[in-house]
Amino acid sequence: MTESHRYEPLELAVHSLPKPQDTAWQPVIYGRWKLIAIVMVCSLPALGAYLAYFGGNPQGKAGFGELISPVRPIGVQTAFALDGGTRALSSLKGQWLLLSVGPGRCEVDCQQRLFLQRQLRETLGKDKDRVDWVWLINDNDAVDSSMHKPLADAVVLRVDQATLDSWLEVPPGGSVTKYLFVVDPMGNTMMRLPALFDGAGAAKARIDLQRLLRASASWDGPGR
Fold first, then answer.
1. Taking the chain, what is the end-to-end CA distance rounded to the nearest angstrom?
2. In 3D, which of 82, 218, 70, 75 has the Cα closest to residue 156?
3. What's CA 1's distance to the chain center, in Å?
4. Tens digit of each residue's pLDDT (9 = 90 or more) over 52-82
5. Beta strands in 111-202, from DSSP E residues, in sequence order
6. Alpha carbons 63 and 204: distance in angstroms, whole number
7. Quick count: other Cβ atoms within 10 Å of Cβ 72?
8. Which of 160, 157, 147 is nearest to 80 (CA)?
9. Distance between CA atoms of 177 and 193, rounded to whole angstroms?
10. Could you tell me the pTM of the whole model?
């Protein structure tokens, strides 16, 4: 190095330094993408079951039941049991539900719906333990004591009408008492079936439920 070069000032060329505003959002953006990825991974089993079951029904129809789209998530409200105790509605999660709604003063047509609902669950054989039989009462009328024994295997809760309307979708002008609803283990109402049906309808409803349970067998745990 020559004497003249030794004392020359150094020249530094800075081509690109990150701007503070460019780096400040990187952890936030990364965190959001990570959260989205986790949600997608957790949703894949349920999504796969729905696609396996409903892939051949682009019109939103099952063999007998009708799909509810988008699904209706369960609420966080408190429900009331027949013994006067309370129970969070969300505690029904973790199990498939076959659900009906009716008044506390359950007349003949209401009793027939409950009978058909119970029998439909029984026809599932060993898979019936993956499905809870649920009756939701939508008024303040007392339930006759003669109904307690037939409902021994059912989950019976009293729920206000506003909660039912937000969770259970029916066609315009329809009534929740005219349908049976299928709720997945995550608490989403995703199918409705006519509450009254003949033998042929019962066979079609059973096939719908069996297909749904079979499609979800890889991710749905054993019944409680």
1. 84
2. 82
3. 78
4. 444 444 444 457 889 998 999 998 889 999 8
5. 131-137, 155-158, 179-183, 188-194
6. 6
7. 18
8. 157
9. 11
10. 0.72
